[in-house]
Specification:
The protein is of the alpha+beta class. It contains 2 helices and 5 strands.
Length: 134
């Protein structure tokens, strides 16, 4: 008697935050796997404490660093805040490196996060520019 073994990999899905309807079904679109995890990380970075109803602990107050003077100390604080918020609230990700480069002339920081998703062997990166808008 042979047993049929089935390997199942985790599939991550999330809403497409553009809220564009699917052309056939008319439902809100979805993003899957790597793109879903990437968007989750970016959402965590842009969320401050007390912004999510019933979960005031979620967030990292990363935008607050934009109103501090630009220095290597500010870059290090920002890097530590990014690592902390992702380690605490995104359990699917293992961070390998975070790079933060300040651009005082543009009033912002370039953020590059190198990471691994569980069940995916390749190293991935997410890049964003955090800037003041007011």
């Amino acid at each position: 008697m042979s047993a049929l073994l089935k390997t199942q990999t985790a599939t991550y899905t999330d809403f497409d935050l553009n809220f564009m309807p699917h052309p056939v079904t008319g439902d809100i679109g979805r993003v899957k796997d790597v793109e879903a995890v990437k968007r989750s990380m970016l959402n965590l970075l842009m969320t401050s404490h007390y912004e999510r109803p019933f979960h005031p602990e979620i967030g990292g107050n990363i935008r607050d660093t934009l109103f501090e003077p630009f220095s290597s100390f500010s870059e290090d604080n920002l890097k530590l805040a990014i690592i902390e918020v992702i380690q605490n609230f995104e359990k699917r990700v293992t961070i390998s490196e975070v790079k933060v480069n300040g651009y005082p002339d543009q009033n912002g920081y370039e953020i590059i996060i190198m990471y691994y998703i569980e069940n995916i062997a390749e190293e991935l990166a997410v890049e964003t520019f955090l800037e003041r808008v007011r």
